[in-house]
Amino acid sequence: MMTQNKPKNFDVKDLSLSSEGKQRIEWAEREMPVLRLIRERFAVEKPFSGIRVAACAHVTTETANLVLTLLVGGAETVVIASNPLSTQDDVAASLVVDHGVSVFAVKGESTETYNRHVQTALDFRPQVIIDDGSDVVATLLKERKSQISDVIGTTEETTTGIVRLQAMERANLLSFPAMAVNNAQTKHLFDNRYGTGQSTLDGIIRATNILLAGRTVVVVGYGWCGKGVSMRARGLGANVVVTEINPIKAVEAVMDGFRVMPMEAAAPLGDIFITVTGNRHVIDGLHFPKMKDGAIVCNSGHFDLELNLTALREISHQSKQLRPFVEEFTLREGGQRIIVLGEGRLINLAAAEGHPASVMDMSFANQALSVEYLIKKRGQLAPGVHLLPEEVDVEIAGLKLKALGVSIDTLTSEQVEYLTSWETGT
Ligand SMILES: NC(=O)c1ccc[n+]([C@@H]2O[C@H](COP(=O)([O-])OP(=O)(O)OC[C@H]3O[C@@H](n4cnc5c(N)ncnc54)[C@H](O)[C@@H]3O)[C@@H](O)[C@H]2O)c1
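Above: query sequence and nicotinamide-adenine-dinucleotide SMILES. Below: predicted holo structure tokens.
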């Protein structure tokens, strides 16, 4: 990959980490064959020539490969962190040193720095915004109205961001197209389920080194992420309890073989609690006092508000850091010790490396093709939330199968005819 001049502006932890970052970016690239194919095409077609793209993402090895794909396609790019704890500092350094990208991301940055970086991304006057959680778009709509007309469109990586975009659309505030990358089948069926499933447990294990076999793990939310987390926790020998508010998801969890109950009933049973709802305070102040001494709580949903840590602090008389990403709170009444991982931020990115590259390959193929789609359809798409056309989803799955060396059947002409007619019955 090309080496460019160092950009004028950037904010990363330590540029001397770049060689380690470069090696890890290349390691991830090996597992991203679909994105590689797209990159090869972009190198020839240059679909983003001269387009300013601001990417707000978890600055990981996989994101670096997405950014390099945009660069090869001709984009001018600025990259900021989508979460204060998810940045891989070596990757951020390599993007600056080896690829000349303006990166503003430091692991452990304060909320003020995070917000300042969002402003920096908007100072760049982006025409396309790649967002993860919709903070850049929300700030644009609230504080930079004069720049809205610059924007060709946005792409949104995660469930929570799409929920926010839909709320903006309902309020008639979204005046450009937004590609719901998360809603592509080749994104959420794999990234949210298998990616979050594996990497969330990886984060918990790296932070604590606890054995999951025989423990009771309470998974809060049985959506795409919750299904993955529950499945993998069971695979490691845990007794999994699910809490839900949606009757259909709750029935699904029951039929998948999990115990389902309200949080109040689950609180005394759990050894480990994992929230993946995209909702706020799903473990609230009233739940902590019901928990066992030594209960571990963490979150893998997008924002750090799923656990009500303000309430936990109020009912605790002391807290101490036991290990990196492991903080213990002692309750004033009852005296139980409640252990919070990763400050309640996405544990898979705070304490581990996020999703494996192989699954991000499809998510970021969707991102790259969504940016291309926005540019190709510039001026033709109505404002609001859009899905990539289904044939693109199918194409990405086909490329992934090819890369995995898996072939499948095709319909015979007799079957096509049968499936498109109504005359034949028994
Ligand atoms: N950690 C990661 O790397 C990662 C990856 C993908 C998505 N996410 C985030 O994870 C969250 C979940 O994503 P998803 O795709 O599974 O969403 P989803 O909509 O498929 O599932 C969320 C589930 O939570 C349930 N829920 C809502 N409030 C609840 C409550 N009070 N108690 C119990 N259950 C409740 C909903 O009914 C739903 O079934 C989102 O914030 C998303 O942005 C994180």
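DSSP finds 16 helices and 15 strands in the chain.
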